[in-house]
Design brief:
The chain is an alpha/beta fold. The protein contains 21 helices and nine strands. Helix content is 50%, strand content 8%.
Length: 494
Amino acid sequence: MILVNRQNIASHPEFLLGFNPLLEGLSPFIPYLEINERFRHYPLQGIEWRELPPARRTPLLALAAHHFVPTSDALRITDAIQTLIRYHLVLRNPLQNNEQVRINRIALIRSLKELGAVVILDGSGILLSGITGLGKTHIVKRALSLVAPNQVIVHDRSAVCGWARLDQIVYLHITFPSNGSRGALLLRLCQAVDDLLGTTYLDHYRSEQRRVRNLDNGLAMVCSILSSHRVAAVVIDESQSENLEQSPWGDELRLCFLNLLNIGVGVILLGNPSAFQNIRISSQLERRFSTGGIFELRPSLRNQKKSDWPGFSRGMHEFQLVDDVQIDPGVRSKFEGDNTAGIAGLLRILHVEGQRQCLRRGESRAVMEIEDLEDALGSPAFVGAARIVSSISRITGHPDFADLDVVGEENAPVGPGHQATAGPDGKPFVPAEVPDVIRQTLANDRRRDTLARNKALKAQLLLATLPMEDERMEGVKEAHIQSARDAIARQSSK
């Protein structure tokens, strides 16, 4: 065992509380003021790309995915992730006798009732929301690579810690299942562990579910697996209104998150702002996620001089594979702002595709001009981005999400039986003379009613199309399935 000395404490300040082997494999603690330089990563530095003819440089454009420009949001989120991971490992120091007892008890549990009898830890979470393209996943992946460069840490036999060998998993990163079911979420967690360690937890989990057909027991099993490998955090990406907020199993999902937090596993949820409304209604979950941090990324649509946008765009321009740029800085800034709505991910696409247009010309010296950026707007890579920008430009206030992740009142979904007054252009219409506050109230009421109808229909559709395995795990009976199918048939016949 490594003795605690001044150097150890400088790298891991938590050692002041006592040595903790779970912290050893992490990156040394990064003070907030140093995160900026560590986060920054420009992959073209040190590469002699000018030795290549312009037409042969296009494969290097793929390196843009690894070009990281720090922003104030990115630094705060990275610091929060670092704090969350280290906090949960301190909570579960294997050198503490009471922690060894707790871990051994969790390893033997077979039901949620038994899990509830185990000592509860005050785990915390992070909510990171924002529309598509703002860099949520990009930031989190970079933060995790800095905080925990080794996702799996192998510990040899330790009598004092009570293990013959431990494969410690610092974090898991999964995507939220599209059907919003707890069963599918638990399957993905098992699969993620197997992918890292080469284990067969997924097969064992499925075997047990076929035998007992009780998803609560399945949750207890997954909690035991995560606890045994000392997982500090579970990152769940792609949380949307459809698979979380409007999920028929929303209550069960919230209970799932709470159980993970109670055993000392942090939960980091990434997704759309509209996905987390019911999460934040729960006072327990609200407190837990507030402890880790609730962040919402927003486009830099206005007041760009007061935001990170100018610094981010300059940093993004550092990723350059053309020999020169002959575009007036003011013209370029306005063009990029107008066509990306201040969304970091869209600027990345526009900048890369503009260079691609320039390099493809095959000239001996690549000089990017405004025409290259204009041509980039029509490139296949930017088509979806253009639709997002168009949708955002119609929004006032907080964005709601639908097909594009953003939706204004005029293109909100209309449920069956919902009649909207149409104007001359066929769009929903509110008389101009109605005061703004009333207009907004009416719009909010219509949206709330529509979302409620769509949520009910979506729940019925999910039941009718749920895979057989999920039917068994969710405890859905054939009568429920048939009822949902009948309801959908009635709606279709109207």
